[in-house]
Amino acid sequence: MKTIFSLLLMLCMLNASAAKKPVIWEKPSYVSTSISCLKLNSVEFHDTATIVKASIEHPDRYIGNSMHLYGEDNKNYKLKFIKEFKVDNPIPVDERGFASMTLVFEPMPSTTTFFDMLEGLAYNNDWVLGISDAKKPLQVKPYALNEEKIEAFSKDFFHTDTTCFKGRIDGYSRSLGYSSLIIYKGNILTGEDDPISIEINEDGTFERKFVLYYPILSLLTSDDLSSLNVPFLVKPGQTLNFFIGSYGNAIVTDSSGNQSEYSAITSSMPIYARDSKHKALDANKFRLKNYSKLVENAYENALVTHDYLADRFHYNDIEYYMGKLFMQIGYGFKISYYWMENRTIKKNGANDVPDSLKDVKYPENYSFMRKLPLNNPLAIGICMYDWFAHHLIIGPVYLEGEGYYKDSKDGKKYILYEDSIADSLKMNIDKAIFGRDEISLPMKTEYLHKFYRESRNGRYNFINIKSELARNHPADSLDILVNGRIESIKCRAEKIKAAFHDPKLESLLDEYVNYGINDRQITYTLPDCEATTILKKITDKYKGKYVFLDFWATSCGPCREGIEESKAWREELRNNPDFEFVFITGERSSPQANYDEYVAQNLNGAESYRIPEKDYKKLWELFKFNGIPNYQALDPNGNVLTKFNEYQLGKEKFLENIKMLKNMQK
Questions:
Q1: CA-to-CA distance for 359 and 290, rounded, in angstroms?
Q2: Which domain holds residue 240?
């Protein structure tokens, strides 16, 4: 009897031991990750903990205590500790640059079929999405889009109204290193930048109203460009209330305190941009044809990631559609930016690339663009769209339609085609790239921007054209020549307008050309606002002179290049009674040590100012620009010049413009 009892006891112990045996996933699969050098080795589901074992190659990072598991049950499971090193400490690596780590989390149910490992849902956080058993990998379902909802959204897309952003940043203090939020936005119909600066109060609250012309999907960014990057989707007329958590995650409500119409995408959209299952693509290592294929592969994976996020975070149809556009434009940007990323092309110039990279000039190598919704008007609401379109149109493939190199006695000389020839060639290139009989929306908007800029800077103005022609023609022939120039401008606009096939864009082009021809104003008065006060503290001492402003940063290569190229002739013109050059940068944009060293070498004796970053960003908003270098100018009365306002033209051209300005303002 005693023997039977012992056997039964042993069986019970064995059963209990078997019951406690953990569920283990060996080499689990996943949908996407932001950490390209990470390898998941196993996941163990114990009664007391969930253990994730991983290895990482050449990490330059640490694991923070905000890292957690987001379960299939939509619950968070906190990180308890890491076996090999302390949480929030740099990851230690061996001599080969590798590290192994055992992350111990609170226990998840052993019946879990998938989960996410998240540092957070802010733009800069790390994550691994859709982790599952390799034997039963997660199948991501394609999103079932209701096309009628998108059609209804499209009908009311273009309308102007005031939008309000307000909210609070949890745990905010000035010691965090930022004091304002920035929205980098623009107006795609004019090409104008229109950044919005939002002051943060000491208690972390903020509020700002601004005008929108159509819905936008963009980022609310801290002025240090790294602490916060909160995505949002907003329509003209909406009020959004943001509660931004300590790790950058955000909750958005409407003016009534209810969940915002597009709150789900605010919670999760940052993930799309950092999908690194395919390692970072280096443009300098690949020919365009091969690079495009790699981008296309990464793009296909990103589509799956987007479907996963839409299902996981319950996107509505508009969030899904606009979020997908955001992701697609991001991948298109990789192609349009290829020639700018490639140092070899940059060194040789866009029109004179080496033979090894000649494929950047052939439309057939941009076929990936046909997969993107670049001719969808809703795409212009994506914050990257205008940058993308511009970088595509100024790339080598389109510049084949601008002109050609000709051998001469003095070496190679670049010959520009006449406008009508260039327009025709570039339109044919565009049609070949997109495989359409009609030019693309990026080309249409780029033409709109060109005519808008030229109408504002006096290229079409009777007086300005007359002043320009007077340099080389007798006075009695000027009126005929000027009228001929204006007619040719109108004729060119008509030919371009005929290629638009869009009544709204055609109307805008007419408006810009007519404004430019009839405009007689070359200055405007600054508004009465805080940004104007900031500017006047710098520039009032130069009243009576033309003041040429250069907004720059030590971290900006093109800024430094422009300053250094003009250094010699600017120094020749120093102490001129008619004008002054003034250089303005921000404290974070140009750290003190870097600023001091650069100024000593390149701006020694120049009028140079380094101001608080929040003041610097307010000047960006005042002059409506999203990036640097940017050049502005004030007349002797302190009004802003709308024409002849760049000094980066060379000494002779600059002095000609000063003479012209003085004649026009007599």
A1: 10
A2: 157-274
